[in-house]
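Hi everyone, sorry if this is the wrong subforum. Our group has a chain we'd like a structural model of before ordering constructs, and none of us has done structure prediction before. Sequence below.
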Amino acid sequence: MLRRLYDWVISLADHPRALWVLAVVSFVESSVFPIPPDVLMIPMIIARPSRAWLIAGVALVSSVLGGMLGYAIGAFAYEQLGQPILEALGKGEAMDAFSDKFNDLGFWAVLTAGVTPFPYKVITIMSGWTGMPLFTFIATSILARGLRFFLVAWLLWKFGAPIRDFIERRLGLMTILFVILLFGGFYVLKFL
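Answer:
Right subforum, don't worry. Here is the predicted structure as tokens:
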């Protein structure tokens, strides 16, 4: 079923209103939808490299707005909506233990989930549920999602179709390496 959903999302890249479709996919992915917007962004940018920055910008704005919906779900409807969503993602049991540490790691948790393949929707709901300051959540979401979407856009704009296979296969690995380097850089700056 997930493969059919993935193929359907890719087919939308050719739609005349693909930017609107990307906005919707980016929005709902941040709170409930299982397919990341990158799947739609990649073929859109390859087809029209001159629109790479616009496409990344639409994904960023829509994703952050969708993240705010996820935050609201966590803050105001956790038991009715948030908990079932997280349980469907297999994250329900770890929620209590995770919530104790979450706000201590809040900035880093949102940054990491926003950049890596970790389901961003888990962090958006958790941010609202644990009462993370809304400003911190929004600012970190803009930074994280901006890094992710504009990095993908830049790679596709610079290298074109040959980088598509690399991104689709290794995006998770590359973003995890990026986060490790980012954490390492902050660690070095803090202790040097």
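For your construct planning: The chain has a mean pLDDT of 77. The chain has one domain: 41-191.
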